Amino acid sequence: MKESLPVLLKKNLQHIPIGKYEITNYSGDDNDTIISSSHITVEMDNRSKGQMEDFPLFTGIELLFYRFLGSKVYSRHEAFEHVIEINYCQDGSMGWNMNNGTNIYLGAGDLSIHSMTRCANSELTFPLHYYNGVSITIDITRIATTLPEILKEAGVSGQNLYQKFCALPKPVFVQQNNKVIQIFNDLYNAPCTMKTAYYKLKVQELIILLLSMDVCEEKIVNPYYEQQVNLINEIHSLLTQNLEQYFTIDELSKKFFINTSALKETFKSVYGAPIASYMKEYRMKKAMELLRTTDYHISEIANNVGYQSQSKFTAAFKDITNLLPSEYRRLNR
Fold first, then answer.
1. Does an H or E element contain 300, and which?
2. pTM here?
3. How many helices (H) and strands (E) does the chain have?
4. Span 5-222: which CATH code?
């Protein structure tokens, strides 16, 4: 069975102590040379850790890869009005409680753009307890005289980037645009040699694509506010603490006084999947834990995670893991 991303992240970050953040800085030349690597202490919850790789691509333009395990980290920096930040979620999900009380949630394939004045002294949460994503920063004061020729020919300037994406009353949020997803998939599958050169090519392609978009025609998702997010978290607690019960959307809507459309949309944005899909996977993860750590009969485990029929549980388990429950237990004991 292919290992899940959280399992792979745990392996890749196991050398980083809890509460620490590893920063690796690259030279920005085509040799992909590491010039420094260090562990620093940042403000996060006491079970989190993270990793950042920083590639300076051009004067004023940087590409950063982020990996987090845990549930919360804080971002403390100056309010850089002149720096544009593009954030993309490759895997997992991220909630961003910005300093004006606005919450933005990125699920896999989602992208947001804003000036870094919006995210100074902000809180990042990871509802799935992991995050794998990319940030691109563009300092519009530094690129004024050093913009790459390809971007110049495309009509890109710091001023038109700022006016399009940062002069709006709220951050721009583009949900699962296929062309954007393809570019970031390419970044994650860059050739092992000449990575920096490849990154330069793809980031320029992304900037031109974003500037060509009609923001009004894109699917722009409104930010979520703290009260709405807290309500969704309450619903999540009810669902995950009562696995033996099944709640319909209508029942949840009436119980928590939220309309069904807002419930479905906000839950997916916060937790990265529709309620039914999320809960099926959650039940299977709980079943995997019980198979690994207890001697319960499979029918008992099925009942514990909400399946009265062992055959239906077995089918659901195999759909998620490609293994029968008995096979999974044998391989993981």
1. helix 298-304
2. 0.78
3. 12, 12
4. 2.60.120.10
